[in-house]
């Protein structure tokens, strides 16, 4: 069984549990805030979305939105995370960067920690790995592994279990972003999802980030256009003929 180490403790100083509408949070204390125009243009926001939060800044009177947690004008989510899912959400103020993060054609890997009903079988993991036939077509090959229960924060509200039926956890890495894809994939192989946490997108993950907290990061090279990262195309570098 694969073991994953998570640097998250439910009772750390960064792990307050929210009741009702959560207070607006600044970025985490170990990360300097974005200050200059140049830094803003080059930064992304890494946010740990709690459950039951909409991936939008406005438009709801009775549900929590990103505006309850993030104060960063001009930034918008790159892709979405379901209202009833938790975990990593990236935000940017650059349209081209939103596309590189969210659009399936760029095949940016996204890793989810998934609690399912039942003891996940090797056959089910193989099906998830090879591709699952859904109503909108066959899913791309994925990386599916059984893992031990991760040391995550408590979920609010707690997961509802059925007595006498075990649960298990898996790590699932996909390169698509279909509507409720992970939930549909696990259901298709006979193991309904109980809890879904997106842990990683590309190089960015949630290590050390409590629910509702966010931090800024420079745009990683993997998200930059090839011309921006290739030494041959940098300004001032002479080009050579082929």
CATH topology: Pseudouridine synthase
Mean pLDDT: 81
**Coarse structural class:** alpha+beta
Q: Approximately how much helix is present in the residues?
A: 10-25%
DSSP strand tally: 13
Distance between the termini: 50 Å
Which CATH top level class fits?
Alpha Beta
Return residue spans where pLDDT drops below 50 for at least 5 consecutive residues. Answer: 5-35, 229-242
Tell me the Rg in angstroms: 19 Å
> In the residues, how many domains can be counted?
1
CATH superfamily heading: Pseudouridine synthase
Structure characterization notes:
With 242 residues, the protein is of the alpha+beta class. Strands 1, 4, 5, 6, 9, 10, 11, 12 and 13 form a nine-stranded mixed beta sheet that branches. The chain has a two-stranded parallel ribbon with strand order 2-3. It has a two-stranded antiparallel ribbon with strand order 7-8. Residues 5-35 and 229-242 have low confidence and may be disordered. The termini are far apart. It has helices at 37-42, 95-102, 122-130, 181-188, 226-229; strands spanning 43-49, 53-54, 64-65, 76-77, 86-92, 110-117, 133-134, 137-138, 143-147, 167-174, 193-201, 204-205, 214-218. The protein has one domain (37-220): Pseudouridine synthase, CATH 3.30.2350. A hairpin with a 2-residue loop joins strand 7 (133-134) and strand 8 (137-138). The longest helix is centred in the middle third of the chain and has 9 residues, at 122-130. It contains five helices and 13 strands.
């Amino acid at each position: 069984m694969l073991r994953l180490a998570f640097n998250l403790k439910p009772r750390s100083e960064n792990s307050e549990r929210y009741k009702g509408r959560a207070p607006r949070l600044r970025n985490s204390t170990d990360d300097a805030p974005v200050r200059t125009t140049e830094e803003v243009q080059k930064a992304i926001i890494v946010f740990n979305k709690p459950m039951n939060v909409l991936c939008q800044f406005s438009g709801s009177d009775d549900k929590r939105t990103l505006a309850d947690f993030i104060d960063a004008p001009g930034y918008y989510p790159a892709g979405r995370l379901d209202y009833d899912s938790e975990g990593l959400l990236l935000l940017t103020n650059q349209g081209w960067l939103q596309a590189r993060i969210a659009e399936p054609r760029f095949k940016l890997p996204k890793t989810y920690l998934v609690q399912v009903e039942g003891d996940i079988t090797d056959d089910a993991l193989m099906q998830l790995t090879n591709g699952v036939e859904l109503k909108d077509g066959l899913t791309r090959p994925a990386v599916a592994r059984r893992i031990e229960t991760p040391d995550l924060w408590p979920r609010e509200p707690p997961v509802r279990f059925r007595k006498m039926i075990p649960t298990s956890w898996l790590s699932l890495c996909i390169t698509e972003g279909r509507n409720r894809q992970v939930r549909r994939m696990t259901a298709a192989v006979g193991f309904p999802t109980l809890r879904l946490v997106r842990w990683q997108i590309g190089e960015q993950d949630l290590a050390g980030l409590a629910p509702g907290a966010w931090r800024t990061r420079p745009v990683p090279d993997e998200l930059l256009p090839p011309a921006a990262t290739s030494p041959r195309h940098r300004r001032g570098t002479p080009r050579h003929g082929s």
